[in-house]
Design brief:
Two copies of one chain form a homodimer.
Chain A (H helix, E strand, L loop, with lengths): L5 E6 L3 E7 L2 H6 L7 E3 L2 H10 L4 E4 L2 H11 L4 E4 L6 H12 L16 E7 L5 E6 L13 H5 L1 E7 L6 H16 L3 E5 L3 H16 L4 E5 H7 L5 H11 L2 E5 L5 E5 L2 E5 L13 H13 L5 H15 L11 H7 L4
Parallel strand pairs in A: 1-5, 1-8, 2-6, 3-7, 8-9, 9-10, 10-11
Antiparallel strand pairs in A: 2-4, 6-7, 11-12, 12-13
Helix pairs in contact in A: 3-10, 7-8, 8-9, 10-11
């Protein structure tokens, strides 16, 4: 097999996060379910923005956060995602490159603006996301640079891509190219509502040969339509080689065939904003996996990265994760 | 005298802050003097941005921060400043209005983009600012809405406006309209380099009838070309009715004729980012003054607001300053 150029290629919706602190009454007023991600149109985006308090803008996007995390661990990281050639797109591109991520996706010149997610952070640190996909609707198979896919040990994709038919096709193309090149494929289920929207299609995809599946407790329960976590775990272990099931402060469970590893969460003195927890968990785990570490060790790196990102506002690491992991003896 | 519609009208360069954490070596590599503000052209802005790490974008601008602070205290706040009709300008306008600030300045349709200041925050919490003025160069006398100036108790302006001849004219017009309406005028000297660039002209302006001058220690020393703080204080008390001299952790001194009040700094558990300290001090002070509070009390409100803003990243308050001041017994 030819040598690899990247450890992990991440593919997802390229989104700039627009964060504001709100109280619970704001969520009630706008009839928003706390902790969820919903898609909104441009009009709703404008209405919500007009009613929100002062904002902080930071690059985000689930797989974008993972790509930044991989690079922060010192991994060779690439990213595919669609931005427009506008100020928010410029910020998004800068932030990935500044982190050391290879990001050369062609920018849209016309059409909708770079995607924004209005992330409403309540005093308990929970985040409620309202995403206007904007330019992301233009991600198509044309954006899948096969040479990059073939040269990445793992191609990791977010379930959110399933919300747009063109992006779903791009996702499938990338998975096919990766498999044909003898590389590994990985997905995250992204969100329990996303799983509800695409349950059968996700199951088909996983059973068709995804190597590593990431899901949190509500997502994996939704996938198998069960209230029982153990039941869902037993089901996913039959459907894919490696499943990484995160359970917030209860830590995570990693299953590979008969192997089961339960890893505790890494302690956090104060949870400020949980945005990006799952994305950074995936970054730590995949960094370990692509460097030949044992599953339990991979999960510890994931837990460390997740703990860092929830201790501050924003879904990208604020410290060098490689140095951080070395300091605590994990690398 | 007719009733007022606003307590404080703030006028300044409308700027979006682009913050990144850097180490001291980054400042050395770019030959930047720590703690200073310098003006940069578009090319330098692009070079610096390309070399900076991942960024956080938050609305800023010295007088913009003050306007936000006044509104957060519950004061009636208005702002004049020039943005372009672009994404960063939209963010800037939203953030002021979301805070409750009256902001109706006409946006530029063509010409340079909304201004950005690249704020490099070193581990000690100091900030080094690199400002690309962009659309601010289009602030002219046409942007001075006399009706708003006449209806504001105090018109407060930043010294930075002096860097552009057109903005300086706008500043002078506003001061003249305010005086003619029997209102008060106030300025901040902004930055010791700014004072060096415009020393004589600042002195002429102050002596021509500015009611309240804000300056930090290095700015007031630079204005009177002395190394002696007391000497500078004696000089300014002859030149203007009220001078508010801030000295970072050493607190501040307020002088009005024979009166001298020394007020300690408000305690801060950890200084994260000093950006906006002076701007928020001015907000607290002016809020007190426009509500008939005694000078020492005004200074205490200033110290409280400054302490809040340096305890986090960004130059706008993250708490409701009115509630905060009430909670600690200052309102």
């Amino acid at each position: 097999m030819s040598p690899t150029r990247f450890d992990v290629l991440s593919i997802g919706n390229a989104i700039v996060d627009v964060l504001a602190r709100v109280d619970d009454r704001f969520l009630e007023r706008h009839q928003l379910a706390k902790g969820m991600m919903r898609l909104i149109d441009e009009e709703t985006a404008e209405e919500l923005f007009a009613d929100m308090g002062p904002a902080t803008v930071i690059s985000g996007g689930s797989a974008g956060n993972t790509a930044a995390g991989i690079a922060s661990f010192g991994g060779r990281s690439a990213y595919f995602g669609k931005i427009k050639q506008d100020q928010m797109g410029e910020l998004f591109g800068h932030d990935l490159r500044a982190q050391g991520v290879h990001f050369e996706s062609v920018r849209a010149i016309v059409g909708p603006a770079t995607a924004r997610s209005f992330i409403l952070v309540t005093p308990d640190g929970e985040r409620t996301m309202n995403t206007y996909l904007g330019a992301c609707v233009n991600l198509t198979v044309d954006d899948i640079d096969s040479a990059v896919v073939e040269s990445a040990k793992v191609t990791y994709m977010e379930g959110y891509l399933w919300d747009r038919p063109e992006a779903k096709e791009a996702f499938k193309r990338a998975a096919a190219v990766s498999r044909k090149a003898g590389r590994q494929t990985s997905i995250t289920l992204s969100d329990s509502f996303c799983v509800e929207r695409h349950r059968d299609s996700f199951l088909d995809l996983i059973r068709s040969g995804i190597d590593i599946v990431f899901a949190n407790e509500s997502e994996i329960k939704s996938l198998y339509q069960t209230q029982n976590f153990d039941g869902a775990m037993q089901a996913i272990r039959k459907d894919c080689p490696i499943a990484v099931l995160t359970r917030s402060e209860a830590g995570c469970v990693v299953v590979r065939g008969e192997e089961v590893h339960a890893i505790p969460a890494y302690p956090v003195s104060k949870v400020v904003d949980v945005t990006g927890a799952g994305d950074l968990f995936a970054a730590g785990f995949l960094h370990g996996l692509t460097h030949g570490l044992k599953l339990a060790h991979c999960a510890q790196l994931g837990a460390l990265a997740a703990a860092e990102v929830i201790s501050h506002i924003g879904a990208r690491p604020e410290v060098n994760l490689r140095a951080h992991a070395k300091a605590v003896g994990l690398l």
